[in-house]
Design brief:
heterodimer, A: about 170 residues, mainly alpha, about 0% strand, globular, B: about 500 residues, alpha/beta, five-stranded antiparallel β-sheet, about 25% helix
């Protein structure tokens, strides 16, 4: 399916989902809300990013989660500082991920990303990462890079990595 | 005088002898020479003026957005190749890993034979000598390689490959490992510490946080350079405009930016943007039984050119190491999840070896293409053809064998999921892996070409004296003039070419 066709259908499908309208059942998942005023992301895009970041950088016994480290807010701040056209591409990718229409058409998955169970979210992200459509692979790389950079640059992860941190200078 | 966004609150309109766009390896060396000749020089620099005081943060989350192009997010259009390119007063030299080489004789010979470009080692030698003296370029062997770099030396010794200690532009290096964050010790002899202050001392004016948007040409002459002062925290232009009216303009924004500026300005003669080369990098990690701590110690102190020339049909590559700071490591593992976490958990024992592939030499290798998006941003497309994928497969095997020979207990590739090898018996795992765009992590730390020098205006953009073929008062003096990749880290070649260009640019005023 050509990229433009996918995007057009995605936009149309997105409109349907956001209207809560006919045809596609939308079950509200628990959507994360920002803890500070948003700068570049809409609330819905923020929620999608927060969900994706928690799957990409889930933390665990010895590590905080992406949500714990405010990864979605950091990415929002990062996007706010990029060239607006570059930031818009990322917001678009989040919209595509959330509305799932490409997934419906290509993989049979109709539900919003934020409404999926964690395992299904992992599968959705993996489907993008290995997609035969370069656009989706690129979109995955963009989201994964932003989330990973925000997460692993946080000193709270250094102990896990075994990185003692940089040399300190007397101030 | 160096002015930044905070100083530039009102529109500026200034005339001068030479406007130099970019203060990196090319622009700074050139500008200092011109100012010392007594010419009035204005330097426009898109990046910020940062010093060791700011670098001492040593925080990746600050350094990459502040000191790298597109706030650390520059990449090919498909995001397959992460492009690490500096942006600051000093350009890429603020964040490079200090490795210096003169232009290899075999590359100059290739340029003469294939591109008709007459440039000899003898002609370049005095320029290399001058920059080597100013920048303290010398073999750095007072201190042993860090544990990361030691792996390549150990492997090469065991496998019978050649290797050498690296030449670096440092004085009083503290061996900290933070070159890529901006040297906090003022030991790295970056442009911001050397040729930029030289230029300023000789009277040059530097406008930092100022992006040149367009070169205004009337017929075959540059009449003005139009720029905007940037929001220093953002990748966006502010409201303040600057117009420079030079007798001669020099484009020194580096590969990618220089071709984009010419294209935005409608100066599209010849192959502008085409033949952009990246020394595309793939990396293989080794996990060792003892700590490696690849975040400490000079990032590059050893290299091997054992495989740099593999004949006329296959890409050669050179071997070095990359430092292993957490954010950079994590971004090379985009699969996220448990796999990323596990790899990050082993980072303290991980050595990262890189293979930099030499593009632009093989017949038919046209490299990548820079174009301009509708909004003016540069766009870089770089295909990964079968021949390059084959080279990646081969260099993966070389690096895996190197890590095993050096004592690694596990070798990991940057595939998703990584291919994991415990011994030579596992090497066939590399044959089955895929090496195309977005199938294995790829990087570029060296960007070259896009405004090639040469005798023929249909196949080059500037002449051998770096003057534009058509626009008589326009020069390009940076890494974009290289007709092919170099097979060595490019900084010293650019310093040398810029030093040589002082004569031609000065004479054109």
């Amino acid at each position: 399916m050509k990229r433009r066709a996918v995007l057009r259908l995605a936009a149309a499908g997105g409109a349907l989902l956001f209207a809560g309208g006919a045809g596609l059942a939308l079950q509200p998942g628990r959507r994360r809300e920002p803890r500070e005023p948003l700068r570049a992301l809409t609330p819905r895009a923020f929620a999608t990013l927060a969900a994706a970041a928690d799957r990409l950088c889930p933390g665990g016994d010895r590590l905080p989660s992406a949500w714990d480290l405010r990864v979605p807010e950091k990415v929002d701040a990062t996007l706010d500082r990029l060239d607006p056209a570059a930031a818009a591409e990322v917001v678009n990718a989040l919209r595509l991920l959330e509305n799932g229409l490409p997934g419906l058409l290509l993989h049979g998955r109709p539900r919003a990303f934020t409404a999926l169970a964690p395992e299904a979210q992992d599968a959705a992200l993996e489907a993008w990462r290995t997609s035969r459509f370069a656009t989706l692979r690129t979109a995955h790389k963009a989201l994964a890079s932003l989330a990973s950079a925000a997460y692993w640059s946080d000193p709270a992860t250094f102990a896990y990595v075994g990185y003692p941190g940089p040399p300190r200078f007397p101030s | 005088m160096i002015s930044g966004a905070g100083d530039l609150q009102q529109d500026v309109d200034v005339s001068c002898d030479v406007c130099v766009i970019g203060s990196g390896a090319g622009g700074a060396v050139l500008a200092a020479g011109l100012a010392e000749q007594g010419l009035s020089v204005v330097i426009l620099e898109e990046g910020g003026h940062h010093t060791s005081k700011q670098f001492r943060k040593l925080d990746e989350a600050w350094a990459y957005p502040a000191l790298y192009q597109e706030r650390g997010t520059r990449a090919t259009a498909d995001l397959a190749i992460t492009v690490l390119q500096g942006r600051s007063v000093g350009g890429g030299t603020t964040v490079n890993w200090t490795t210096c080489f003169r232009t290899p004789d075999r590359i100059l010979e290739h340029w003469r034979r294939v591109h008709g470009l007459e440039l000899t080692p003898e002609e370049l030698a005095p320029h290399f000598e001058a920059v080597e003296a100013r920048l303290g370029i010398a073999t750095w062997d007072a201190v042993p390689p860090n544990e990361n770099n030691a792996k390549l030396a150990r492997a090469a010794d065991r496998l019978g490959w050649t290797w050498e200690r690296t030449r670096r532009n440092v004085r009083g290096c503290a061996n900290s490992g933070y070159c890529g964050f901006g040297c906090p010790f003022d030991a790295k002899q970056a442009m911001g510490l050397t040729y930029v202050p030289d230029a300023v001392a000789a009277g040059a004016a530097v406008y930092a946080d100022t992006r040149a948007e367009r070169i205004e040409v009337d017929g075959d002459r540059v009449v003005a350079v139009h720029g905007r002062v940037m929001d220093p925290e953002r990748d966006r232009a502010g409201a303040v405009r600057i117009v420079v009216r030079p007798k001669v303009a020099v484009v020194a924004g580096g590969a990618i930016n220089s071709p984009a500026l010419l294209l935005r300005s409608g100066i599209a003669d010849g192959p502008v943007g085409r033949r952009t080369f990246l020394h595309p990098v793939v990396a293989v990690s080794g996990v060792y039984p003892e700590p490696v701590h690849g975040w400490y110690g000079a990032p590059q102190s050893v290299y091997s050119h054992e495989f740099v020339d593999r004949g006329a049909e296959e890409y050669g590559f050179f071997l070095e190491h990359a430092p292993v700071h957490p954010m950079l490591a994590a971004v090379s593992l985009p699969m996220g999840g448990a796999v990323q976490q596990q790899a990050m958990g082993a980072l303290a024992s991980t050595s990262s070896m890189i293979a930099l592939h030499v593009d632009g030499l093989l017949p038919g290798d046209e490299g990548g293409t820079v174009s301009v998006r509708r909004d003016g941003r540069p766009r870089l497309d770089y295909p990964v053809p079968e021949r390059l994928q084959r080279a990646y497969r081969f260099s993966h095997g070389v690096m895996a064998r190197a890590h095993l020979a050096a004592g690694a207990t596990q070798v990991a590739t940057l595939h998703s999921p990584p291919r994991l090898l415990a011994s030579e018996a596992d090497l066939p795992l590399l044959d089955d892996a895929r090496y195309g765009a977005l199938e294995v992590a790829m990087f570029s730390a060296h960007q070259m070409g896009g405004c090639a020098m040469g005798p023929d205006p249909t196949t080059s953009v500037v002449r051998r004296d770096l003057r534009h073929h058509r626009v008589a008062n326009l020069f390009v003096v940076d890494g974009s003039v290289l007709p092919t990749a170099l097979g060595v880290n490019p900084s010293e070649t650019i310093y040398g070419l810029a030093h040589r260009a002082r004569g031609a640019v000065g004479a054109a005023v």
